[in-house]
Design brief:
It is a single chain. The protein is α+β, with helices and mostly antiparallel strands. The protein contains six helices and 14 strands. Strands 8-9-10-12-13-2-3-4-5-6-7-14 form a twelve-stranded mixed β-sheet. Strands 1-11 form a two-stranded antiparallel sheet. β9 and β10 form a beta hairpin. The protein is globular and about 65 Å long.
Length: 284
């Protein structure tokens, strides 16, 4: 899922220049991904005002798509290999968020009746569980990534500004960004990305609301929101001090899409989403 999130992150702008030749109301973004070891894949992202779809090429040729409908507040996960799909609704997300808040409140209430020794044991257990959850989510702490401008470079046909991103003193990203105008876009038109960020934020465990920021969850915002200026045309991620993957924008163009683009293909079987099951149990 995090790979999917990171891929869509580069799609955080939509064209707002009203040129006659750009009459199409959607945007197609093509992204090249090179992982450690040399494996190269191509991802595509289709964007409209209230809908977006990311088509992700996984390891070994696996193919998955994620569609967000901002109007309906529904996330659809499509497994093209098994020809199945599942949906996560706003009601599911709200129920999961409520369950997590309720569980935290119950633990806090129980702690009031514990001895100091019991409370210390519970806090230690919660700390270990929280650390494990953050590691699984790819975030070792709740601190924000800090970016420092380091120069300029060239990616494809764009001259871009380099930024080094560090978290807790460790390098986690290299970015090369351009002004949205260089792509013919403005950030203001990409409201659906902020809707998607809010949708995902509710599924984050308590204490991780800052670990996965809005800019990391699909939304490319202002310099104050994201910590750097412009739109990344290249992102290099690091794990343990070593480069793990490179995401590079190779093409951006206007294109119109049909409704079918943002739906599961005909003949795909709908399956029950694990998050949906959790949400329904919470509403019972």
């Amino acid at each position: 899922m995090r790979s999917l999130v990171r891929t869509v992150c580069l799609a955080g702008v939509v064209c707002a220049v009203a040129l006659p030749a750009w009459a199409a109301d959607g945007v197609l973004i093509v992204q090249k991904v090179i992982r450690a070891g040399g494996e190269a894949k191509t991802n595509q992202i289709q964007i409209e005002q209230h809908r977006m779809r990311a088509e992700i090429a996984g390891p070994g040729g696996a193919s998955q798509s994620m569609v967000f409908d901002g109007g309906r507040q529904v996330m659809t996960i499509i497994d093209n290999d098994h020809k199945t799909y599942s949906e996560i609704t706003q009601a599911d997300v709200d129920a999961i968020s409520q369950q997590m808040s309720s569980a935290m409140a119950q633990m806090q209430a129980a702690a009031k009746n514990m001895t100091p020794e019991q409370r210390a044991q519970m806090e230690a257990l919660m700390g270990r569980a929280g650390a494990a959850g953050r590691a699984m989510a790819g975030a070792a702490s709740t601190s924000k990534t800090v970016y420092r401008k380091t120069g300029t470079d060239t990616v494809g046909k764009w001259t871009c500004d380099n930024y080094e991103g560090t978290k807790d003193g460790q390098k986690v990203q290299d970015l090369c960004t351009v002004d949205p105008k260089a792509l013919g876009f403005t950030i203001a038109d990409f409201a659906v990305s902020k809707d998607m960020a809010a949708f995902f934020q509710k599924m984050m465990p308590p204490g991780m609301t800052q670990a996965v920021s809005a800019s990391e969850l699909f939304h490319i915002g202002t310099p104050e929101e994201q910590g750097f200026s412009g739109v990344p045309v290249r992102t290099i991620t690091y794990a343990g001090g070593q480069a793990s993957a490179t995401y590079e924008l190779s093409d951006v163009r206007r294109q119109s899409f049909t409704d079918a683009t943002f739906q599961a293909p005909a003949g795909y079987q709908k399956t029950d989403s694990p998050l949906g099951r959790m949400g329904r149990r919470g509403r019972q």
